[in-house]
Records
---
Amino acid sequence: MKYLVTGAAGFIGFFTSRRLLDAGHQVVGIDNMNDYYEVQLKRDRLKELEPFEHFNFLQLDLADREGMAELFKEHKFDIVIHLAAQAGVRYSLDNPFAYADSNMVGHLSVLEGCRHNNVKHLVYASSSSVYGLNSKMPFSTEDSVDHPVSLYAATKKANELMSHTYSHLYDIPTSGLRFFTVYGPWGRPDMALFKFTKAILNGEPIDIYNDGNLARDFTYIDDIVEGILRVAKNIPTKNTEWKAEEGSPKDSSAPYRVYNIGNGSPVQLMDFVKAIEDAIGIEAKKNFMPMQPGDVYKTWADTEDLEKVTSHKPQVTVSKGVQKFVNWYRNYYKV
Ligand SMILES: NC(=O)c1ccc[n+]([C@@H]2O[C@H](COP(=O)([O-])OP(=O)(O)OC[C@H]3O[C@@H](n4cnc5c(N)ncnc54)[C@H](O)[C@@H]3O)[C@@H](O)[C@H]2O)c1
């Protein structure tokens, strides 16, 4: 099979590409290599993919309409796994237009590419942040998600709406994956695990928001990639029973699905910090801070649907996953 993986130099895109290549698929990876975080980390991820014979990389911006149209026309992909985006909640407060360009225009370029080139399945990254002000736990794809609290979240919800429109109009099967705080080796420098590990090893204090009263459904990268690849094989069909008046938001009369992809067990931030301290063997100096605008208090994924469709339940515990990250970090940065 021929796959397009967007954001192939990114954290999740890199692991997804590697798994596909290991399984013998052909992968074209694209990424604009932006400097939202250290570009060397993106280059080094790509270095790991270069030895694969069936891997091709192209530096391309999603918002480059002609470039994207040419790419789709040239390769005629079977399946598209669209992971490139401007990520991060806090950055969206100061850089809103980065989200308009990469997440809105970018998603449209991908949809147009799928529309004109007979792509069999588009799997794309949404986010747990779409749950915004929802307080019913666990977060379910049966619930409405109309109250985002960051522009980032609003663009991810918009991606789901745009995908539904294209599924309806052009019969493109689309599956949206709401990722819940993904962590692991080669992870993102703007996320808590990376920042805390770096600070603790440098003897610097860590900033703990909302005095530590936060919880996240941390999901290890291998569990995420397993879920992505299993969903990719499960091409959604039209739900002929679906009716607008009583139908659930998670599917449709169009070949459209959204899934939560998370661990299914929230961890308190202070327990997460303890796991990092244990993995490093040093106690952190802690700066307790107020709640950050745009953040949510707790995330918890209802993953029943995903388990039903993929027969996969996340396996990796936070203590094991954090230890793997810390081992990678110390080896990569030689600290
Ligand atoms: N990591 C998480 O916890 C998490 C949680 C929820 C959702 N997500 C979503 O999952 C996807 C992957 O996230 P990640 O953690 O791997 O992030 P990442 O930033 O490591 O990867 C995204 C990649 O996309 C590239 N990119 C950004 N804008 C682009 C553009 N306009 N054109 C081409 N390439 C572009 C970046 O250079 C980067 O390498 C994103 O859509 C993100 O919003 C991630």
Note: The pocket of nicotinamide-adenine-dinucleotide is lined by residues 7, 9-13, 31-34, 42, 61-63, 83-87, 102, 106, 125, 127, 179, 181-182, 188 (CB under 6 Å).
---
Amino acid sequence: MADESGWNASDISHLSIGSVSSWGIATATVAAATVSAETATRRAFNLAPLLDLWTNGSLTSLNEYRIDPERGPRVMRRRWFPSAEACPMKQILELRVNGDRHEIGVPTHFTLLETLRYVLGLTGSKQGCDKGDCGACTVLCDGEAVLSCIMPVQEAEGREIRTVEGLAGPQGAHPLQEAFDLTGAAQCGFCTPGILCSAVGLLESKPDADRDEIARALSGNLCRCTGYTKIFEAVQLAGQALSTGRTPAEIIGEP
Ligand code: FES
Ligand code: FES
């Protein structure tokens, strides 16, 4: 039986405890699809915070209760927070990101990616699969490409973290960013921050990397839009720019 919030007890048991998993969303979505039309509107309204998950990552809900004389404790109001705000277990960490030093309180279960996006507001690194498969979350850690979605934030302490926001310098875009622009290597852009970081990790240690080495360095970055031909062209062009000190535009004769 649904309470006044539009959820029945089994829904609440899936959704009111801790962070909401994608399994929880799937369960709620199936449950919502099977309710009567009368409650569907209210349910759709109540599902709205869950849709934030697609853009904001994990949420935590806290319920407020009232005592119904006949039915006992009932959920009166459910409030949703980004997990960072609701989690009581925080740890003070010092992180160095893009040359800035941050002393921050971070939920102890956070990954580096969650910390970058939801604590520091650096949303350039994308939360794709969130399990180490797609490479959208790639950042540089002491110059080496790492998957920030599976890196506990504590492991980033004392290391130099560089995200896509930190690739450009005072002179402007990084040569690789310029090469992506000139060759049309980026389309939807969801994978692009991770690809840029993986490629910068390679080029800054080996600017003359050949096609096979570039392919190997980017093998953990999935792009569903472009195919990789233009991406490889862009990385090679940026490599030439870094080796010769010329700009990508000068190399290909663009004004
Ligand atoms: S979001 Fe990290 S590998 Fe997909
Ligand atoms: S540009 Fe769209 S997934 Fe890579």
Note: The first helix runs from residue 9 to 15.
